[in-house]
Design goal:
The structure holds 3 protein chains of 3 kinds. Chain B is α+β, with helices and mostly antiparallel strands. Chain B has 2 domains: about 5-80, Ubiquitin-like (UB roll) (Roll), CATH 3.10.20; about 80-200, DNA polymerase, domain 1. Chain B is built from 7 helices and 5 strands; from the N terminus they run ββαβββαααααα. In chain C, strand 13 (about 300-310) and strand 14 form a beta hairpin. Classes of the chains: A alpha+beta, B alpha+beta, C alpha+beta. Chain C: This is Molybdopterin-dependent oxidoreductase.
């Protein structure tokens, strides 16, 4: 299990990186590599060139303002998770991140890399969709912002063009009075979830995002649905699949269990935040 | 066509090494085969088992998921760097010996590096935190029981040893990103029922029913 | 007086190198870069489960820079004629009517995904893998046979010349079991299934070879459980004299059974390449290869018919099972034979009949994995005991107790033939006492109250238990060599190999005790054929029994010689001498008395009459210093040197035993299974080092948990292994094992060996699946009285499916 040979570039500027990517249709970008390198080692991917972003300056920031959390392309999961400010402004990010693999993987893996990898079984894509976030990408034509709703187009597939590099992700702030929660059930601690669910409740608005249930990270609007019907209402929008770890029926059951649980937890979180604000 | 080689410098256990490696050379292979530091073991090469865990600028990473070229200029600490300058075992190593925390020894280096960073960041782990600290490493021999004991013992030994004996901690400087234990705690205490909470529930059950193991 | 080390939790000596990163595992050998650096091998493996090889084209590989050799089957005969033949069938058996083994590189046909097809040797593993990717093989794909059901149906055959895919059928009978079942007051039938898992040591297979043209010898390092076995096989296959082959087992990163198989194709190909290329060659198996080209175990389908009386006593037990042995049978019928005999556990059924068929499938070979057929047998027997208890409305422990062999019935002869070809006779044990200990340890009698309390909260908890007897320490023999050097240090060699069991420590304990030397002065080397060329291997929990006994006997011989020489030197009677901390002295004499003591180093000097002195100590042994000029310097029945060598070869196996209990909670909604408590009582006879024994149990239980709740080999119908990675083959992390395993010991020493030892290595894993099945079933019956667990492992998804299925459709 050794990677096939590839060319290697370690650009010092973003412009160089974009130019290199544009000039080589077989090139791939390396940031944390925690999803990419296993694929390379197993020779399931064989890029002509790896463009290593790790020497690019200024991309490892986690910047937080009242509007939300901006995570640079080289910010490791661990750094995002450790940011007290990020947790205050959009708590769902940390809630989800604590479920991403194990701490050692989080030390190297990047949050933006996880988004671009676009695995529907991963935590962060659904969090980006649920929070209404976006990705800022740089290409030969300059910079553009891709809304999360436009980003995930297929299994492991985004709407980014080949020559675009994700520069940062933006997770908008959790509205005052809103609450968030994240739940998942995995076979082993740290594994990809069999089913995971994140919820944001804001007054009457109830939205739940699911991972590992469909080919895409899927957010279901459950506003106005009675507590007892939450699971079935969510299932009406989902088509759970099966694999060697769980049948489709079992995934459906987990959706039934997790949906009310995560919504209740989000409501509790909202109440807790409200209490803290007033206190 | 010969594969292109890249000139890199790696500082391993405090010693700088200049290497010429192909871009695809995994850090684990560079350590083992180019530098003959065979203490770092390779168990899966897809980042799951943790046997190859080394400290990169003080933080645990999987050496099998990092290319040597990508970490040029950085500091790496391997199991060989955990021994005290006088050759005595470091606190984590010593704890493993005392607690029978290893059998075949193959996964052990990854545990030792992980715990070294873990007790640096959290010098007084609770029992649950001791278990969490090693939750990303696979061991096929021990059933983990004695490794958990070793984490707790290592924390005691490290505290007793004090900072004055910290000269062996090459590359073990405190992390700037994970040093805030209160944050970790806050995440763990959110209403979400993650696996860690289950463990806590289980403990409570055991305590109230007299069925604790 | 030196404290006896037997029974002491002595810290392990091997840890010092492991903890410093100075262990020497196979891949660590020959790592020095340079011009004559080691070359690396990679193997092209079949992507198909069943196919005919039409053509192999290696032309693209030949020009790759850094490639030194590419071989297919066609090349083998020219390299060594014996390589043209299939690999050896290691353990022939009369019932194995259709035994088949693979070739080192596939000839004409492949029979599982992962079978070796071609070998590449290159400058490094990266280049070798590049080259493997350039080999073009044209396959004619054949239908694959996957799973016991397909094998029995035999719509397709794995091997054209093996009808019904049946490699073997074996029946053993004691009394007339079918008649006894038919005549019994009560009868039950059970269908029970266990899926495949695997040993999965964290270090895979690995072999390094260096051919030395100057001495005409081969040096081979290999990660094996049998260095002497590899040596013999390599010698035969490479056409070498045994004396030309040295096999060294370096540190081994876990075995658990899989590394007893030999020779692996690579164990022959690597030395062959080293000899042909004149360069050292290394093969280090990667994880994917380990999944698809080493070995699996456990897959078995079992049918039990049992007849019993009102007390639950088994009057007749009639068992039929089907064993999936994969594509080939290099290890013979060992696994199903063990199931068929060890299924009996601590019980004495009135009449017993067991029949099994061993079946070919287009999957990875099946060879022993820790427990080796016992977990399946235990599952069958213990599920049967639970079913009887359920049927009679009795406590599950009561039914077991009613069937126990009693302490006064040892030796107990089952009148069957065990895996070593010898009678199945239990040597010792006390099963009633053990059950009492287990009940106390787990809180069996208090459990119903707890269960009711939990039920009141809407929670489902259940308890289960599993009892087993494990034949350990099978022959034929092991040996040990003890050498007291002139430094006074003691060097010990054993022939079997070590994979983390702490042999260097426990055998040093035995030597220190017997010889009266300091523990730290004893160094044990294992699995080096240069040091101990006669040995069998590490399997069947036999190291402590076999090598332990041999070490003890060898140390005893060395001691006899020490005392003889020392008595002569001290002019004292042997009976008056003692050895303490490496010094022989006259008992009762003041410690500083002149001429009343002699250290072992000096005794060693005296044992070897010399012509030439090489240091101060050796002067004392030269010809003008010692000896009676009237006698030969070495007596007729003696030999020079202070050594003791001996072998231990028992009449038959020892029988360790144990009982496990587990308390689980099953989530009514998610079907998640949580372990609340795990308790183990075990009897491995005399314990040498309780710390190490407990460690073995911890590890076994963790593997048992894996096999009960997490691990399986997920083959699809075309024979592709869908979970050949640590991402999807779910070995437990710390988070999946209980926080604490309660352990209690019982010691019934074996009368068969001098120390009373029985084995402990496999104990933890044997009854785990049985105990979990019982506990999960018990928990489920809080809400579904008909719940029945008949297949392991079980995942939450499967438990959920079971809840949705009416009883009559189960099993």
């Amino acid at each position: 299990m050794k990677p096939a040979p590839f060319g290697y570039l370690r650009p010092g500027t973003l412009a160089e990186a974009v130019a290199a990517l544009a000039g080589d249709p077989g090139a791939k970008v390396l940031a944390g590599g925690q999803s990419l390198v296993p694929l390379l080692n197993m020779r399931l991917a064989a890029p002509t060139t790896l463009i290593d972003l790790n020497a690019l300056p200024g991309l490892d920031d986690v910047t937080v303002d009242e509007a939300g959390v901006r995570v640079g392309a080289l910010a490791r999961h661990a750094a995002v998770l450790a940011s007290v400010e990020a947790r205050r402004v959009q708590p769902l990010v940390a809630m989800a991140l604590s479920n991403v693999a194990h701490p050692t993987i989080r030390n190297r893996g990047t949050t933006v890399g996880s988004l671009v990898h676009a695995d529907a079984a991963a935590e962060m894509p659904v969090v980006l969709v649920l929070t209404g976030g976006s990705l800022e990408v740089e290409g030969p034509a300059g910079r553009r912002t891709v809304a999360a709703s436009e980003l995930f187009v297929g299994p492991l597939e985004t709407s980014l063009h080949h020559d675009e590099i994700a520069v940062s992700a933006h997770f908008p702030a959790l509205a005052p009075g809103a609450g968030a929660a994240f739940e998942e059930i995995a076979r082993r601690h740290g594994d990809y979830a069999l089913v995971g669910a994140g919820a944001i409740v804001d007054g009457d608005s109830v939205r739940v995002g699911f991972l590992s249930v469909s080919d895409l990270p899927t957010v279901v609007d459950l506003s106005g649905v009675a507590e007892a019907d939450l699971g079935e209402a969510a299932l009406a929008e989902l088509e759970p699949g099966d694999d060697i770890h769980a049948s489709a029926d079992y995934r459906a059951q987990l959706v039934r269990v997790l949906t009310p649980r995560v919504v209740a937890a989000a409501r509790e979180h909202a109440a807790h935040r409200l209490g803290r604000t007033r206190g | 066509m010969a594969e292109e080689l890249h000139q890199i410098r790696l500082t391993v256990n405090g010693t700088a090494h200049d290497l010429r490696v192909p871009a695809r050379r995994l850090l684990s292979d560079a350590l083992r085969h180019d530098l003959a530091l065979t203490g770092t073991h390779v168990g899966c090469e897809h980042g799951v088992c943790g046997a190859c865990t080394v400290l990169l600028d003080g933080e645990p990473v999987r050496a099998c998921l990092v290319f040597a070229v990508s970490v040029q200029g950085q500091e790496v600490t391997t199991v060989e760097g955990l021994t005290r300058p006088d050759g005595a075992l470091g606190p984590v190593q010593q704890a493993f010996a005392e607690c029978h925390g290893l059998q075949c020894g193959f996964c052990t280096p990854g545990f030792l590096t992980t715990i070294t960073a873990g007790i640096r960041d959290n010098p007084e782990p609770t029992h649950e935190e001791a278990r969490e600290m090693i939750a990303g490493n696979l061991c096929r021999c021990t059933g983990y029981q004695n490794i958990v004991k070793a984490v707790e013992r290592a924390a005691v030994l490290a505290r007793e040893g004090g900072p004055s004996e910290g000269g062996f901690e090459t590359g073990l400087r405190p992390s700037s990103t994970t040093g805030d234990a209160s944050v970790v705690e806050e995440v763990a205490q959110q209403p979400s029922r993650n696996h860690g909470d289950d463990v806590v529930d289980r403990e409570d059950d055991a305590a109230t029913t007299g069925l604790g193991a | 007086m030196t404290t006896k080390l037997m029974g002491q939790p002595v810290q392990r000596v091997e840890d010092q190198r492991f903890l410093r990163g100075q262990g020497r595992y196979t891949d660590d050998v020959l790592t020095t870069p340079g011009d004559d650096a080691v070359l690396h091998a990679a193997v092209l493996r079949s992507p198909h489960a069943h196919a005919r090889i039409v053509d192999i084209d290696v032309s693209e590989v030949l020009d790759v820079e850094g490639v030194h050799a590419v071989w297919t089957y066609e090349d083998l005969e020219g390299l060594s004629p014996a390589m043209a033949a299939p690999l050896p069938l290691l353990i022939p058996h009369p019932a194995l009517s259709h035994g088949r083994t693979q070739y080192a590189l596939a000839k004409d046909e492949v029979n599982y995904v992962g079978e070796a097809v071609a070998l590449v040797v290159a400058d490094d593993r990266y280049v070798a893998e590049d080259a493997v990717g350039l080999i073009r093989v044209d396959y004619d794909i054949l239908p694959a046979v996957v799973g016991v059901e397909a094998a029995r149906e035999a719509r397709h055959l794995v091997h054209d010349d093996v009808p019904g895919n049946r490699g073997a059928r074996l029946v053993q009978e004691v009394g007339d079991a079918p008649a006894a079942v038919a005549a019994a007051p009560h009868r039950l039938e059970l269908d029970l299934t266990i899926e495949r898992s695997a040993c999965m040591p964290l270090e895979g297979r690995g072999t390094v070879a260096r051919w030395d043209p100057d001495t005409d010898r081969l040096q081979l390092w290999t990660s094996t459980q049998s260095s002497t076995g590899v040596r013999a096989a390599v010698a035969v296959k490479l056409g070498l004299a045994l004396g030309q082959v040295d096999v060294i087992t370096p540190d081994v990163g876990g075995g658990f059974g899989v590394k007893i198989v030999h020779p692996w194709p690579e164990e022959l190909l690597v030395p062959l390449a080293a000899r042909a290329l004149g360069r050292p060659v290394k093969f280090t198996e990667d994880r994917r290869e380990h999944f698809i080209s080493s070995a699996h175990e456990r897959g078995q389908v079992q049918h039990v018919e049992v007849g019993f009386d009102d007390e639950g006593r088994v009057l007749g037990l009639d068992v039929e099972f089907w064993h999936d042995h994969g594509a080939y049978t290099p290890y013979g019928l060992i696994v199903p034979i063990i199931t068929s005999t060890q299924l009996l556990g601590p019980y004495k059924p009135g009449a017993y009949r067991v029949a099994f068929e061993s079946l070919y499938t287009n999957t990875v070979i099946v060879t022993p994995y820790r427990g080796a057929g016992r977990p399946q047998g235990c599952f069958a027997m213990e599920r049967t005991m639970d079913a009887i208890a359920d049927y009679l409305g009795k406590d599950r422990t009561e039914v077991r107790a009613a069937n126990f062999i009693q302490p006064d019935e040892f030796p107990y002869d089952h009148q069957m033939v065990f895996q070593d070809g010898r009678p199945l006779v239990y040597d010792s044990g006390d099963y009633p006492a053990m059950l009492e200990k287990l009940k106390a340890l787990v809180g069996w009698d208090e459990f119903p109250a707890f269960q009711a309390e939990m039920a009141a909260e809407g929670r489902q908890v259940g308890i289960g238990l599993g009892c087993y007897v494990e034949g350990t320490g099978v022959g034929p023999y092991e040996g040990a060599h003890v050498h007291v050097e002139t430094s006074g240090k003691v060097k010990v060699a054993i022939g079997l190999t070590t994979q983390g069991q702490g042999h260097q420590t426990v055998f040093a304990q035995l030597v220190a005790d017997e010889l009266g030397v300091k523990f730290e002065d004893v160094e044990v080397v294992a699995g080096d054929t240069r040091r101990m060329p006669y040995a069998v291997g590490t399997f069947a929990s036999r190291a402590a029994v076999m090598s332990g006994s041999a070490v003890h006997l060898a140390a005893k011989r060395a001691k006899e010689k020490v005392l003889r020489i020392a008595a002569d030197a001290l002019e004292a009677d042997e009976a008056d001498l003692q050895i303490v901390d490496g010094v022989v002295s006259v008992k009762g004499a003041p410690p500083d008395a002149v001429g009343a003591s002699i250290d072992l180093g000096t005794v060693s000097v005296l044992s070897n009459p010399l012509r030439y002195a090489f240091d101060e100590a050796s002067k004392a042994a030269t010809q003008f210093s010692v000896g009676d000029p009237g006698k030969p310097p070495v007596a007729e029945d003696d030999e020079p040197g202070l050594e003791g060598k001996d072998f231990y070869s028992p009449d038959r196996a020892t029988f360790a035993s144990g009982m496990h209990a587990v308390i689980v909670e099953t989530d009514p909604q998610t079907a998640e299974i949580t372990i609340l408590k795990y308790a183990v009582v075990h009897d491995c006879g005399t314990v040498i080092n309780p710390m190490i024994v407990e460690g073995q149990i911890h590890g076994g239980v963790a593997q048992g948990i894996g096999g009960s709740l997490y691990e399986r080999m997920a083959y699809d119908s075309s024979g592709q292994l869908l979970n050949a990675s640590f991402m999807d083959f779910l070995m437990p992390y710390v988070t999946e094992v209980p926080d604490g395993i309660a352990i209690d010991h019982l010691e019934t020493p074996s009368p068969l060996n001098p120390l009373g030892i029985k084995g402990a290595g496999e104990a933890g894993v044997i009854p785990t699946a049985a105990a979990f099945a019982g506990a999960i079933e018990d928990a489920e019956r809080r809400t579904r009285t008909e719940a029945s667990i008949t297949a392991m492992p079980i995942s939450p998804s499967e438990l959920y499916a079971l809840r949705q299925t009416p009883r009559q459709e189960q099993s």
